[in-house]
Sequence to fold (246 residues):
Amino acid sequence: MTGPIYAIGDIHGQLGMLELALARIELDGGADARVVFLGDYVDRGPDSAGVISRLIKGIEAGRDWICLKGNHDRMFEWFMLPEPRHDPHLLIGYHWFHEKIGGVETMASYGVTWPELTRLYQLRALAGQAVPQSHVEFLQSLKIYHQEGDLLFVHAGIRPGVPLAEQSEDDLLWIRKEFHIDPVKHPWLVVHGHTPVKVAMHYGNRVNLDSGAGYGKPLSVAVFEEGTCYLLTAEGRQPLRPSGSI
Fold:
């Protein structure tokens, strides 16, 4: 396609920040442009249900929005299965309702709370009554990557040296160190989130747009046009240039 492509980092239940990001895109002239959401719509922030409703509303209105799946979205999706499934990539002793993960906040956004000594199947029954089927279907419909020209949008990153068609969903949703430390230029500029940084960063072969919205930090929006990457701020576009590696 021609024209700009926008990308929005990890939202994590921050509906107000999402609305601000969309407003900035409108002001930039991107009302009809393609917007790629990098996943992690839920957990930690106060209104995961509102974020999903807003994304569904935009898609139903015909917006050119591409929603990718994040690891937190998959945890929510798997919890809503008839028999809830645990993500084995979590640390031992962690689960979706661990205080550091965010499932409690997501359920609260649907009005679901529970007393002590509640069993998982009982909580799943409460969630089944509260979470709209349209939200479950949204989670199930999320893409695991979007490739366009020399840009590859994905939640966490890619495993270096592995062809795109052979990348595993687990890596695309969870990978960190192996991807971050690799300085080699990929076939595309990889645009991702998943690992919070203080500000959005361009590392030459990848751009990280997770600036910590899940912890109350600003939500980052980038614009890609004619081979240049910009960060979209309150003052408009600011060039986001390569600044090294981690």
Observations:
- Residues 78 and 85 are 5 Å apart (CA to CA).
- The chain is about 30% helix and 15% strand.
- The mean pLDDT is 96.
